[in-house]
Write a structure and sequence with these properties.
Layout lengths: L1 H4 L6 H15 L2 H13 L10 H20 L4 H13 L7
Length: 95
């Protein structure tokens, strides 16, 4: 992102130019949505119920992607069923 705006002088007038340029390069909602949905496919199972940090890390990772999808305008009911199915395959074996 720095390369997009590195030659702009730091002025109030260039602020809108910088924002427009960054949006032009990076604002690709369909790509972002697809990336977040693919992250659900790559979730690693937690090996043990006693590994609290791994369980918490997975929960925070899932919540982070859900929040990002909602921010991008994706309604939770459009991916919730798919996500539930994926998460049911990931619990530790002792469950």
């Amino acid at each position: 992102s720095y390369l997009c705006v590195e030659n702009l002088e730091l002025t109030a007038a260039n602020y809108n130019i910088a924002i427009a340029e960054l949006k032009r390069v990076y604002a690709k909602p369909k790509d972002l949505i697809q990336t977040h949905l693919c992250k659900f496919d790559n979730l690693a199972p937690v090996k043990s119920m006693t590994d609290v940090s791994a369980l918490r890390r997975r929960q925070l990772t899932v919540q982070s992607h859900i929040n990002a999808l909602e921010t991008l305008g994706v309604q939770q009911d459009t991916f919730g069923g798919l996500l539930g199915t994926k998460l049911m395959k990931l619990p530790p074996a002792e469950l």
